[in-house]
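Researcher: I'm preparing a figure for a lab meeting and need a structural model of a single chain. I don't have an experimental structure, so a prediction will have to do for now. The sequence is pasted below. Please return the structure as tokens so I can convert it later.
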Amino acid sequence: MSEVMAKFPCLLLAGGQSRRMGGGTKFLRELGGQTLLARIVETLHPQVGKMVLNMNADIPKDAVPDLPILQDSVSGFAGPLAGILTGLEYFSAKGEVASHMLSVPTDAPFIPDDLVLRLSEGLQDDKTTIVMARSVGRVHPVVALWPISLTSDLRKALTDENLRKILVFADRYNRIEVDWTEDEGDPFFNINRPEDLEAARQRLI
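Model: Understood. Here is the structure written out token by token.
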């Protein structure tokens, strides 16, 4: 992986309320002897620069050591777009030099170890393109590279238009999808319900 690719900062999305899992903090559920969050961080660590966690729940800080925690910068549990905005604003304020920010959900324990490499190939030297992962015939809008230059546009869409749908926003710009096959299972399988967690455990057997 090139030095440029490794500089993409990463936002880990955990801003939801985990209702379908029965509440609680979903990313702290265990899979294969690790929490979902720990598995994802371990996979992403060699691929990205600085990582932050977008989370609106109140949990002990030692549950997520060494990760800055960002609450949504807009109120009202406005969905994953609010988390993406929060990350973009954070890295923009920090003077991030990378052109894009990677977003990844914290309930997808099989994130591939070539995620950033493959997504970045879709940029084709275009600093304004949004690149999203696709598998099993569907796009995964929260697994994406987001241009940091869109920060103010996204805030206006959320606050002035009350926009909540990721693809509605993303399709205003140049957007590319990068495909993964499911040779060994869907790499972007996500855990929403207790039965999903059991299915993930079966994949490890």
